[in-house]
Structures are given as C-alpha cells and as structure tokens.
C-alpha cells in the first residue's frame, strides 16, 4: 500500500545536480576548448621554461595551457570592454586609461606553480593584444634572513608571517593603479636570502602574473578590527595548482635529489653542506623540512585558499593535469 505522504523516489534525489560555484571539466573536455588557437612554443622553449623535476611537454602545453591562454585572452578583452563602458558612463570626469590585468598563481612548494606561471607568461605575451607580460614571485617579499632570525621565524619560512605582506600588497596595488614604474626586492635561491641592493623594476605591463604560496590568502584584520584590502583583491583571475599531498611530497624529495646534484654544488649555495654528507642524511633533512615546515604550511595556509581561485588545476601523480574546475560567473 502506498502512503499518501510518501517521499520522492531515491532516483529523483540522485538526478538533482549538486550546487557548486565551479564547472568541472575533464582533461579532454578542457583540451577541446583551445579551438584553433595555434601553439606558439617549441619543445626547446618548453624545456627551458619547466622547473626541475616538473614533467611538462608540448602535449601538456597544447591540452592544458593553450586553452587557458585563450580563456585569459578573452578575459583581458572583456575587461577592456567593461572599462570602455564605465568610461562612457562616467564621462570626462571619471574617464580612466587601461590598467594591467593581474593574475595570481598559487599552490604548494614543489607542485609546479612556477612552471605554470612561466608558461602563462610565454603564451600570453604571444597574443598581439597584450605583448608586455611581467612575472613577479612573492619570494622577493620574504623578510631578509637577519629579520627572520631576529623574529624566530627561520623555521617558518614560507608561512604568511615570514613575508612583508604590506609591501607586497602595496607593490601590486601600485601596478594595478597604473603607476609608470614600480620596484620589488630580489630573492636568490642560491644564497637563500634577499639580495642587498638589487631591485626588480616593472614598467606598466599589459598583464602582471604574481606567483607564490600564499597569494590567495584573505587580508588579516587590522589592529582596529577593520578588514583590510588583501593581495588577492587586486587579482582579475587566479589559478590554484592542486595535487594530492603524498604526490607533492614525492615531487619535493625528487627535486631535492636533483638540486643536490646540480645547484647545491655551487660553492656559494646555502645548501652546499647537503652535498658533503651521504644522500640518506641529506634526504633525512629534506623529509624533516617537509614534515615540519612545508606540509603544515600547505595544510594550514595554502590549501584552504583553493576555493578562492578562479581556476583549479588538479594534477595526477605524473604531474599531468587530470581535471579542472572553473569558477562560474
């Protein structure tokens, strides 16, 4: 006997799509969106752009980063059109010239975000609409080693508190405001510190790419309790490079092995001491660093910002992007 107040069939519940702010796409679905966009990079150029231990070839560029380049070109064009509409509305008093389109690239240590940022810079600069594409990493805004030591933060290098966040936000704000020339400190991975006296100068780019661990973090409240403007508030588009924590750890250790055979051999390298001990001793140090610094930072600070990204790239164990999530408008 059927109850007069029976619940809907279970299949009806399953057929109802789950509400999400993202459109989820497989690699094949995303790849098809490149349309007829030509591939402007050669295999040799891709080899120069990829990071140590990162696995990116022309197929990956064609399937993943070429569609992203096309999408970003559409975003830049749409932003320019919106600016024109705003100028029409404001008239002579509020008319504004073009300001740089700002892209944030976030993700864990060793996940490959630096390679993503370099690829985007190379691809986007080939579009005639925006040839001047600058790339800035947040490493330049790490506090100098002396300051980190004075604050007891050397064991938390890479955590949000190890950066001069105010200077970083001001740097991007000035570029976004259209200032003719803006400078940033320079960081050296060789000496593991800010290079005294060196500056990176950025002059009115069409597009600025900002790459770093914590670029999607919201601003902390001020001492007066008021909400501040954060770095991500200046982004027009943002990318989060995602992967399983276990895979990132494996990539981190493999990269450390490669660096031990290459860059760490330089007599000026901060990490040269790890070339003068056994490989197992050196890897013990790398494992401790991952367990006590990089993994906690990923879980506590980096991964929680994933949901703030415009696009999430999800990598598999082989470093290949398997799925993508694009935020709906």
Short note summarizing the structure:
The protein is α/β, with parallel strands linked by helices and 329 residues long. It has a single domain (22-81, 98-324), classed as Rossmann fold (3-Layer(aba) Sandwich).
What best-fitting shape do the alpha-carbon axes yield? globular
Cα(first) to Cα(last) distance is: 48 Å
Give the oligomeric state of the chains in this entry, treating copies of one chain as homo and distinct chains as hetero: single chain
Give the name of the CATH superfamily.
Answer: P-loop containing nucleotide triphosphate hydrolases
CATH class: Alpha Beta
Strand order in space, largest sheet: 1-9-8-7-2-6-3
Order of helix and strand elements from N to C terminus: HEHHHEHEHHEEEEHHEE
Characterize the biggest β-sheet: 7 strands, mixed
The structural domain count equals 1
Strand percentage, roughly?
15-25%
What topology emerges from the helices and strands here?
Blueprint: H1 10-15, E1 22-26, H2 27-31, H3 43-49, H4 58-90, E2 101-107, H5 113-124, E3 133-137, H6 145-150, H7 165-176, E4 182-188, E5 193-202, E6 207-211, E7 237-242, H8 245-261, H9 279-302, E8 311-315, E9 321-327
Helix pairs in contact: 4-5, 8-9
